[in-house]
Amino acid sequence: MVGRHSTNARGYWFVDRANGVVPSAVHVGATPVGRGPLWCAAGPCALESFDDAVATGLAVRQQGAHALRIGIFKPRTSPYNFQGKQGPGVKLLPELKAVVGLPVVTEVLDPRDVGLVAEAADCLQVGTRNMTNQALLKELGGAGRPVLLKRGYRTPVEEWLRAAEFVVAHGNPAVILCARGISSFDSSLRFMPDLGAVLAARERTDLPVVFDPSHSAGRVDAVARVALAAAAFGVDGLLVEAHVAPERMYQPGDGRQAYDPAKISGLMAACTEVRDVAAGL
Ligand code: PEP
Ligand code: MN
Q1: Mean pLDDT of 139-152
Q2: What's the gap in Å between 92 CA and the centre of ligand 2?
Q3: Domain limits, the chain
């Protein structure tokens, strides 16, 4: 597919909604994401204790989440922080999936790990720090798994769409766009919720658009509020960090933003309602 449309001025063709090529719903496991019921992937920032991952996974499943999110390769801002369980962690995924009974969304950092992670996970996440890693994006074109592509926290929407184009042009149309907040001069929240980007992406492409309120909020008491705001902007789903016992999470980590799994069902119901109300106003 590569090269056919290389002269396009925007830098993307396949993902352009005008061309009607990409799907408006992408399946993660058996569940379609896009233009339907609000999808929710929830779970721990990182796989740390296997027992806590199981307990959190079972709790979010019981609450109606459709997928378990969990980090195994962690893109930390310091080399001295826990980098995830990495290869040995990937080997734990089949058992985790079998016990929890949900499809798994997990990040892949290195193009060399795409095959390994694709064998064990149902959806491959590209983190905000890797959105412009073209070697990774190209490799994901052949992964045979849907890709959840986070927006770079300093990148314009058009570049995000070009990143999606890399995956699609290399053979994989199953891309879910995930907004997760952007850098700003103001640090009241960890990252400024990029709500306008949801509308902009919607206008330009049919690909599903979801939102990660956890990394945007950066604090647990703002997660639901950011999720509701994203719902008002019509997102197809949410990616929520949740943990049964945030106090047990390694520090420094994302313990401050870990949502109570027992509240996921209420959050999904409220977001669905807000999304419907906003669509009618
Ligand atoms: C994550 O989902 O745990 C993560 C690291 O997200 P981001 O790439 O958006 O910071
Ligand atoms: Mn995290």
Answers
A1: 98
A2: 19
A3: 37-279
